[in-house]
From TrEMBL:
Keywords: Cell membrane, Ion transport, Membrane, Potassium, Potassium transport, Transmembrane, Transmembrane helix, Transport. GO terms for cellular component: plasma membrane. It is found in: Cell membrane. This is TrkH family potassium uptake protein. It comes from Paenibacillus mellifer.
Length: 444
């Protein structure tokens, strides 16, 4: 009897790999040793938590700081690290340590995982990813430890420092402060705010941009990709902070009781965190509806390619805004930083955006029939799951079993969607032998 050999494409291997890691994480979190009470976490809740950690989202159905034991918390932070950097990156780390040769198939997988257009220099990029991650997380962990040593014993401060540095850099949004409070008691603390925002932004910029910034002193120039990412990221953070500051300035439940320092830090942090981070210093449920809807837009845009974040990505959003601007000015070419963008790039950006929008709207419509909550809170939760953000208006804990499964699938699609989308809409092999005659329809 002959069995046909199953050949899987790189995206299929990545999807299966992430699914297996999530399943293993769920089984570990179900163990009695993972909880402080010694009880076994139900499978749906364990699967939701493992999915949220591996997909670096941060939505939780049980409080991480009070429900899980040290063992359970370590499992979660390991899932965050593996999910944020990618399991192929971690596998490459072991191969490099053991001095194993990286095969062609492994390089193809790494190319797909890092969303690169070629395999050239892919292993060198992975080395940089690991090095930058270690340096940034270690430095931030030290600063967190020094700050929290004033609030808790040194050993606990060190544990909290390392744990939250990993969580923030990977844009996961999990925290150990208990009672679902995240970083709300540090809303006006400059050290915690600055370190956390630096971790979130550096993790969301993407490792290609980080590499460009590190080598800028030597090369004295940035790539087009880095220019687009840095300019759009800066614009979104500044505009976001300004909008939140204006909308919440007189809100007695958020910014109004705070001093000027707290108002500014709170506005900037809530502008940074929807970019797939998930931590918060203001009560999200207490924000005005206009602010909450604005944050939905920020969450949908998300972080940048080859980063630890989700969303449609800043480069995709830039392409759409640029295309609209070109059309308004009557130009046929989209030009960014004196470079003309290929038409296929614009079509790809449009396709990714429409597919993401369809997914978010479809999931929100389904949940609006199964969950007892306002549509805005459901849309907020759905967008947060798709963008692997982790912010919530308080709905997560009240989701039905069906709702938890749907949100889990949305988180999984949000984390791996860009990979499968890139594979699905990539250029076909070979040339088309004919073209259809051009037709015209009325637009607008």
């Amino acid at each position: 009897m002959h069995f046909k050999k199953i050949s899987l494409s790189p995206p299929q291997i990545l999807v299966i790999g992430f699914a297996l890691i999530i399943l293993l994480g769920a089984l570990l979190l179900m163990l009695p040793i993972s909880s402080t009470t010694g009880d076994s976490l139900p499978f749906v809740e364990a699967l939701f938590t493992a999915t949220s950690a591996t997909c670096v989202t941060g939505l939780v159905v049980v409080d991480t700081g009070t429900y899980f034991s040290t063992f359970g918390q370590v499992v979660i932070v390991l899932l965050i690290q593996i999910g944020g950097l990618g399991f192929m990156t971690m596998a490459t780390l072991f191969s490099l340590v053991l001095k194993r040769k990286i095969s062609l198939k492994d390089r193809l997988l790494l190319q797909e995982a890092m969303n690169q257009t070629s395999m050239e220099g892919i292993v060198r990029l992975i080395r940089k990813v690991l090095m930058y991650s270690l340096i940034i997380e270690s430095s931030a962990a030290l600063l967190f430890t020094i700050r929290w040593a004033f609030d808790m014993p040194l050993g606990r401060a060190l544990y909290f420092g390392i744990w939250h540095a990993v969580s923030m850099f990977n844009n996961a949004g999990f925290d150990l402060f208990g009672d679902y409070q995240s970083l709300t008691k540090y809303v006006a603390d400059p050290i915690v705010n600055f370190v956390a925002m630096f971790l979130i932004v550096s993790g969301g910029l993407g490792f290609i941009v980080l590499s460009d910034l590190v080598e800028f002193r030597k090369r004295r120039k940035l790539s087009l990709h880095s220019k687009v990412v840095l300019s759009m990221t800066s614009a979104l953070i500044v505009i976001g902070a300004l909008v939140i500051f204006i909308f919440e300035f007189t809100n007695s439940r958020t910014l109004s009781p705070l001093g000027w320092g707290g108002k500014i830090w709170g506005s900037f942090f809530q502008s940074v965190t929807p970019r797939t981070a998930g931590a918060n210093t203001l009560d999200i449920g207490a924000l005005r509806q206009a602010t909450q809807f604005f944050m939905i837009i920020l969450m949908f845009i998300g972080a940048s390619p080859s980063s630890t974040g989700g969303g449609i990505k800043t480069t995709t959003f830039t392409m759409l805004v640029g295309a609209v601007g070109s059309m308004i000015r009557g130009r046929t070419d989209l030009v960014l930083f004196r470079y003309r963008m290929a038409e296929e790039r614009v079509f790809k950006a449009l396709t990714i955006t429409l597919l993401a929008l369809f997914l978010v709207v479809a999931v929100a419509m389904v949940l609006s029939t199964t969950e007892d909550a306002s549509f805005l809170s459901i849309l907020f939760e759905t967008t947060s799951a798709f963008g692997t953000v982790g912010l919530s208006m308080g709905l997560t804990d009240d989701l039905t079993a069906f709702g938890k499964i749907v949100i889990s699938l949305t988180m999984f699609a949000g984390r791996l969607g860009p990979l499968t989308l890139a594979y699905a809409i990539g250029p076909k092999k070979g040339k088309e032998l004919y073209r259809h005659p051009e037709g015209k329809i009325i637009i607008g």
